[in-house]
Amino acid sequence: xxxxxxxxxxxxxxxxxxxDLTQKIFDHTAASSDADHVPVALxxxxxxxxxxxxxxTGKTDVNPAGPIAEVAHELARLGVSVAGMPCHTAHAPPIFxxxxxxxxxxxxxxxxxxxxxxxxxxxxxxxxxxxRIGVMATLGAYRTRLHADALEAAGLTPILxxxxxxxxxxxxxxxxxxxxxxxxxxxxxxxxxxxxxxxxEHLREKGADAVLLGCTELxxxxxxxxxxxxxxxxxxxxxxxxxxxxxxxxxxxxx
Length: 255
Prior knowledge:
Blueprint: E1 6-11, H1 15-27, E2 40-44, H2 52-56, H3 65-78, E3 80-84, H4 93-106, E4 111-112, H5 115-126, E5 132-137, H6 139-144, H7 146-153, E6 157-159, H8 163-175, H9 190-205, E7 210-214, H10 218-221, E8 226-227, E9 230-233, H11 235-247
Helix pairs in contact: 1-11, 3-4, 5-11, 8-9
């Protein structure tokens, strides 16, 4: 029997983000029947993994890297060879560094793709004329300059929202307990979407020629490829395509 690579998804950060990545893997697979689709294992343990922004901002001293590594171990036992983690803030160095070190030591046969690195690669290949990239992200990613540093290292110019826009509009659109995307992912509340549209316009006014959705919940709020002519970059879609590229390149749909 021919061995088929098993794609892994470390879900639960949040739950709908894991589903979104899994769906986008299927969406970008060239398939004419059920049997043509690729095997995917999604593990979603929202209660096991502490909030990543809470750790980055010092509200908890429990590093999510440990619980995330345990989920990776479960995926490895299922036979996963390549995995993705649909959570931007979990890629911040204080979390991703210890996580990657542990995976290298304990399960070296499992490769965890880096969502931010894949996004930079996609930008350079698919949007070479876009040089000023607006970023909407969690407060944790904003304060650690997770996306900004990666963009600058690639020779691109990050356009970050003003601090008050980040804290009062973007952060609340993600985390507000009544209308935020963490609380209301499906369907997305109109308040959250309108708040984020105002943030996109703020980034456009600051000179952005594309906007990167730097939180996987934001990909739930914006499914369109552009907003009034401004390209919207969806790293969840990019990660889905990268997972297919590394496992089933012959089944990857062209863009």
